[in-house]
Amino acid sequence: MTDSETATADAGPATGAADDPTPDDDAYSGLFGAFPYAFRQTGSRLCKLYVALGGLLGGLLALFFGLALVVQVFNTLSGTGGTFTFSRAMFILVGLFVVGPVLAPVLLVARRHRRAGSDTRYDRLLGASGFLFLLSLYLGVVASIPPEFVLDGETVTRTPPSGLLAPLVALLYAIPPVASVLIPLAAAASIYGAHRYAR
Predict the structure, then answer these.
(1) Mean pLDDT of the 3-22 span
(2) Each residue of 114-139: pLDDT tens digit?
(3) Which of 43, 62, 59 is nearest to 109 (CA)?
(4) Largest Cα span, the chain
(5) Bridge partner residues of 157 (DSSP)
(6) Chain centroid to CA 123: how far?
(7) What is the chain's Cα-based Rg?
(8) Residue 42 vs residues 20, 50, 113: alpha-carbon distances, Å
(9) Which pTM was predicted?
(10) For residues 110 and 34, what is the distance between their CA atoms, to the nearest angstrom?
(11) How does DSSP classify residue 18?
């Protein structure tokens, strides 16, 4: 084999590697890698906006529930089992229920792009369902406010509906506070429904 043939043979694999359409940076690793990956890959502006906002809110909510759980654990160290253990378990469950659906659209979009490629329609629907869940959290909080509650030792009456959104607020007030959790539950189900419908 001549020197030129040897050089050509040596250069061949390197050129093929450079032209490889699936470089390593097309993959992602773990929860944190899914966010930049989904943001880079999606062609939907709505989805990009949700990836940025959902990632920020998801991180803040996780931090809030984490710190609140630590405080609760320290406050109940003197108790043993029973109600204290149950309350901590319920607190963790509520945290997962809130943070999980906030992160789910981004994780589903990242998984879709890695496995099946780009689909703007899918990304748009998942982004919209994510924003719907964020809105449902606010609506659920409004619906959960009782007619009267104690704040700093004083009995406070909830603000009566007024302004442009008065009909919506009145409708939320009509929902029994114990049933207010159904609002974010329905919105969380819509994320799964959008995933099933658009995939």
Answers:
(1) 43
(2) 888 878 999 999 999 999 999 999 99
(3) 43
(4) 95
(5) 148
(6) 14
(7) 25
(8) 21, 11, 8
(9) 0.77
(10) 6
(11) H
Helix axes 182-198, 120-143, angle to 10 degrees: 170
A 10 A CB-CB count for 127 gives: 26
Residue type, 185: L
Distance CA 111, CA 188 (A): 18
Mean pLDDT taken over the chain: 81
pLDDT, tens digit, for every residue of 34-74? Answer: 999 999 999 999 999 999 999 999 999 988 888 877 877 77
**Residue 81's CB: how many other CB atoms inside 10 A?**
7
**Angstrom distance (rounded) from CA 126 to CA 106:** 8
Look at residue 189 and give its three-state secondary structure: helix
Cβ atoms of 130 and 58 closer than 8 Å? no
d(CA 47, CA 52): 9
Contact criterion met (CB below 8 Å) for 47 and 124 = yes
Q: Is 155 helix (H, G, I), strand (E, B) or coil?
A: strand
Token pair recorded at residue 84: 């204290």
Question: How many angstroms separate the Cα of 124 from the Cα of each of 58, 109, 192?
Answer: 19, 10, 14
Any bridge partners for residue 150, and if so which? Answer: 155
Contact (CB, 8 A) for 132 and 168: no
Q: Cα(91)–Cα(173) distance, rounded to whole angstroms? A: 25
Separation in Å, CA 37 to CA 10, 15, 76, 97, 100:
34, 26, 41, 24, 19
